[in-house]
Amino acid sequence: MRFNNPPNPEKLPEQIVGSGSVAKKSGKGFASFLKTLLKVLVVLALLYGAIIGSKYFINKKSNNLVLNYSAVFLSNGQVYFGKIIDKNDQELTLKEVYYLQNANSDFSPEAIQGSGFTLVKLGQELHGPEDIMHVNRSQILFYEYLRDDSQLVKTIENYK
Q1: Cβ distance 60 to 52 under 8 Å?
Q2: I need a labelling partner for 151 at 20 to 30 A (CA). Which of 40, 48, 62, 98 fits?
C-alpha cells in the first residue's frame, strides 16, 4: 500500500543530474564530514589529555605525600628511617634520613634507650652526604610506616 505518489520516470533523470546540484551537495557533505571528524578528534584528544593529566597529577600527589616516618629494609640488612618524598618503578627517595648503628661505634648522637644502638642522622659521616637518599627499588625488601608514638619517632623528634 502506497501513501505517496510514485516518482515520475521522466523527471527522475533531471532530479539526479539537474544543474550539478548533486555534485555540489556531495562536496559540501564531504567538507562537513571532515569538519565533524576534526571536531571529534579534537574532543577525543582533549579527553585523552585530561585523563592522562589527571592520572599523572593523582600519582604525583600521592607519591609526594610526607605523612610519617618510614622504615626501609634493604637486602643487605641495613634499615633506614626517613620520610618518603617520592617513589617510582626504579627508586624510593627519603629525606630526614636516620639509621641505627651499634652503640660501641665512634658516633655518639642520640641513643635509643636500652637498645644498645645509636641513632645516626645521615649527613654526619666523613664523606658528608646530603640529607636525602635515593634507594634502588631492587634493593628494598619492604618498607613500613612508623606510628607517631613509636619510640624511634619520638627519639627523632627529640633529636631535631
Answers
A1: no
A2: 62
Closest CA to 121 of 94, 143, 142, 139: 94
Cell 516518482 sits at which residue?
7
Strands 117-121 and 79-87: unpaired
CA distances to 63, 106, 117 from 101, in Å: 29, 10, 5
Strand segments, DSSP code E, in 46-116 are 69-74, 79-87, 91-102
Q: What is the rounded distance in angstroms from the CA atom of residue 8 to the CA atom of residue 13?
A: 10
Region class of 116: left (phi > 0), else alpha (psi between -120 and 50), else beta: left
Phi/psi for 110 (5° steps) reads -65, 125
Residue pair 135/80 in contact by the 8 Å Cβ criterion: yes
Q: Which three cell numbers stand for residue 108?
A: 655518639
69 class by beta-carbon count within 10 Å (0-12 exposed, 13-18 middle, 19+ buried) = buried
pLDDT per residue as tens digits for the range 6-51: 665 555 555 554 445 444 555 578 888 888 989 999 998 888 888 8
